[in-house]
Amino acid sequence: MQQRIAVIGAGVIGLSIARSLALQGATVTLLEARRAGSGTSQISFGWVNSNGKSPLAYHQLNVAGMQAHQQLQAEHPRQIRWLEETGTLEWASGAAGTEQLEQRVEALKALDYPVRPADRAALARLVPELILPETSTALWWFPTESLVHPALFVAFLRAEALRLGVTLVEHQEVVAIDESASGVRLSLQDGSDWRGDHAVSATGRWSRHLMGRLGIELAMVDADQPGHIGCSFLGYTSPAQVQLGCNLITPDLNLRPDGGGRLMLQALDLDPTADPSQVPDTDSDVGREMLARMAKVLRNAEGVRLERIAVGQRSRPADGLPALGYVTEHRRLYLAATHSGMTLAPALGPLIADEILSGIRSPLLAEFRPQRLLGKSAEAFAQIVSPHFPAAQ
Ligand SMILES: Cc1cc2nc3c(=O)[nH]c(=O)nc-3n(C[C@H](O)[C@H](O)[C@H](O)COP(=O)(O)OP(=O)(O)OC[C@H]3O[C@@H](n4cnc5c(N)ncnc54)[C@H](O)[C@@H]3O)c2cc1C
């Protein structure tokens, strides 16, 4: 019999799961408290990678995400390109930074993750505006990494879900969940109920709150608190006369093309002051610092200004790894909460849909069951995030 499934939350994770469930024949309702794609999925750096992600199972899941993005885009050649297969250029500075990068490169090579020294002459031709560091600094090129345009990815997934018959209900918060051996009931903010076979919580950084309504404590970072674990500044520039076509990770600034010459900037060491309740304006210290750093990496950027600064709020289980699986006694409610969701969404959709519809557990998801986080507070977990390279990105 056709399963009736509700997905709660229409960010990239919920949209991808809803799409995959519908593709496999389920009757799917997607319930979104605000507007699809208006949560963390609208403020994201969008770097599709598995660069420095451990343990091995997490690396493999991210590689699956990279491949799933390429396959999904290739299967839809006439749709908008949400995925730019750009590659990443990275260099480090200082003894410690250089050693860390070299160690990461060696570890990635051992995993057969594509990485090679970048060709300075070719780079100078390709991006004449790039100010390369001195010749003694090693430049590394990660050819299989890509960039997602978050709004375009959301638009694609949303249209696909609708095309496949998903019922999308926006501005409808799920306020309570009850399950029994035979099914699940969701209470909605307008006083109505939804009833069906399974529900999936894909509520991102709100997962802790929704689980709390069921009396389940879930160890997740509180992204409303200021600081670099849960939050990060992103700067969005005006169009620059700069031919940057790839993702650029430098010691002081990450830069990526953001369409039409615009650039997206991220300076991770500034994030300890990132506070979602006090977003700085473009003429703030943070904004001026980002632009000053950009001018050290790119020529011809003098007239470029910031059009906007945003504070992104991560959806981050307390140990940094995804939380994927059933959380209740009768296995009617499936939790899907993760950081790196831009990379993971196209792989998690089909994997989670398979688990729910077939009942067969995927080996790729086996190490990410939420039980390790239940009944615990976030403080019980050590926060291991380097200010220069958060493995969490
Ligand atoms: C600054 C920053 C940089 C990042 N960079 C990268 C990167 O380079 N690469 C990468 O792979 N990932 C990156 N990420 C992570 C990635 O963006 C997120 O993992 C992903 O967007 C999370 O998607 P989501 O669908 O889980 O959450 P969201 O997009 O937040 O969606 C959750 C949805 O649930 C809805 N909701 C909540 N509660 C309810 C309820 N009770 N009822 C109904 N609806 C509800 C919300 O309104 C929201 O729309 C970054 C994140 C940040 C903040």
At the fold tier of CATH, the topology name of the largest domain is FAD/NAD(P)-binding domain
What percent strand? 15-25%
Reading off the top of the CATH hierarchy, the class of the largest domain is best stated as Alpha Beta
Ligand inventory = flavin-adenine dinucleotide
Number of E-state strands? 20
- The strand line-up of the biggest sheet is 6-7-5-15-16-17-14-18
Which parts are unreliable, with pLDDT below 50 for 5 consecutive residues or more? Answer: 385-392
> How many discrete structural domains?
2
Net shape: globular
Secondary structure tally, helices: 8
CATH architecture of the largest domain: 3-Layer(bba) Sandwich
The first-to-last residue Cα distance is 40 Å
Q: Estimate the helix proportion, in percent.
A: 25-40%
Q: Taking Cα atoms only, what radius of gyration do you get, to the nearest Å?
A: 21 Å
User: Helix and strand succession?
Assistant: EHEEHEEHEHEEHEEEEEHEEEEHEEEH
Query: Which structural category do the helix and sheet elements fall into?
Result: alpha+beta
What brief labels describe this structure?
single chain; 393 residues; alpha+beta; FAD/NAD(P)-binding domain; D-Amino Acid Oxidase, Chain A, domain 2; 2 domains; 8-stranded mixed sheet; 6-stranded mixed sheet; 20 strands; 21% strand; binds flavin-adenine dinucleotide
Concise overview:
This protein has 393 residues and is of the alpha+beta class.
